[in-house]
Structures are given as C-alpha cells and as structure tokens.
Amino acid sequence: RKEVEQDPGPFNVPEGATVAFNCTYSNSASQSFFWYRQDCRKEPKLLMSVYSSGNEDGRFTAQLNRASQYISLLIRDSKLSDSATYLCVVVNGSSNTGKLIFGQGTTLQVKP
Amino acid sequence: NAGVTQTPKFQVLKTGQSMTLQCAQDMNHEYMSWYRQDPGMGLRLIHYSVGAGITDQGEVPNGYNVSRSTTEDFPLRLLSAAPSQTSVYFCASTPGPNSGQPQHFGDGTRLSIL
User: Fold this and answer.
1) What is the CA radius of gyration of chain A?
2) In whole angstroms, what is the distance from residue A50 CA to residue B86 CA?
3) Secondary structure, 3-state, A35-73
C-alpha cells in the first residue's frame, strides 16, 4: 500500500461547481499535512497547510481526519483557473527530520 | 533572491553514462530533497537531507547518490544512467518539514535516457 494515496481523477466539473478531493495516508504518526497545486509541466506550489481544526482560505477549505487518516480539500465556486493537479503531502517522522511524501495527485479540469 | 536553482533544465544521456544534477538554494534552508515525477505517479522522494553532512534515502533511492557538503548545495548523481531513470527531477528546500513553511521547488530538470 502506498503511504499517501489520492484518486487521480480527472475530475471534470463546470464553472461554479463545488468539488472535493480526498487523500488517505497510512502512517498514523504523520505530523503535518499540506495541499500543493501543480500546473502542467511546472513545479508544485503550496496551496495551503492543513490544520487539525480545519482551515479555510477563500474558496478553499482543508480538513484533517486523524481517526480515519485522511485529509480533504474542498473547492467552492470553481474557476477555470483552478484547473490543475492537486497534490497532498504528508510529513512522516519527527520534528525537522521527517520525510515529505507526495500523493500521486488529482487532476481537476474546470470547463466553461 | 534566486530561491532554488536547478541545472541543467534539459539533458539527454545514453544508457550507462553518468551525470550530476545540480541544486542550489540561497535561503539558508536546512532541509533539501530530490524528487522524480513520472506520468500518473506523482512526485516520489529519491533522497533528502536535513542539514550539511546528513543525507537519507527516500522512496526510490536506487541508482542515485547524493551528498550535502554545504547548506546551499545538494547535487544528485546518476552513476550509470538507465532508461527507467527518464523522468522530470525536482529539487526542493524548506527550513524543515514541520516548520510550517512551504517547500520551495526548482524549475525541474527534464532528463531522457536513450
């Protein structure tokens, strides 16, 4: 089993739709969680961190469920510019020596 | 501020050749990583370093060597290139994986092994 798993999609949604992605992780001791965005043939960039209590940044909401070992990303009112691959990242290990493990990414295509 | 600089951006090698992918950062980050990205596979961790003189293996270390003689530089070496190593390689740095700070990525190196 992979340490971090995502549904690769693609998710094809119309503009204005709400879409949610999940990411499961296998290591119950994982400490930190992030969502990154990657545009075609570009480097990944941080979208948002995921906090235990859940957090929101504009149209984006991230949540963590430690009991079930998954994180989620909700995008409301999808824009054409949201089309990208969304990567979840899990940090395994202690403090500053852990490994950052990426999921394989979920592709989102927002259509007019 | 250059951030993370990777060189070269593109490279074609023949099977069995060796080469070094360079990575340098000017943000005084302790933690640096190398990833490879293949279609449908996401980013897979090759090697990482938590500081100068310290390196460790990631998910797919076979066929690659690294060293970290300075905080700034983290080169990745392919000793004997194989077609299975055709991929896009990303170098990244951060103050620390649990620092709350994002990883900064280089632009990537697109490597083809014939």
Assistant:
1) 14
2) 33
3) EEEECCCCCCEEEEEECCCCEEECCEEEEEECCCCEEEE
Residues in chain A whose Cβ is within 8 Å of chain B = 3, 6, 8, 31-32, 34, 41-46, 49, 87, 89, 91, 93, 95-105
- Name the token pair of B46: 């090759």
**What is the rounded distance in angstroms from the CA atom of residue A71 to the CA atom of residue B98?**
17
* pLDDT per residue as tens digits for the range A57-67: 999 999 999 99
User: What is the mean pLDDT of the segment spanning A64-85?
Assistant: 96
Asked whether the beta carbons of A7 and A105 are under 8 A apart, the reply is no
pLDDT at A88: 94
For residue A70, the one-letter residue type is Y
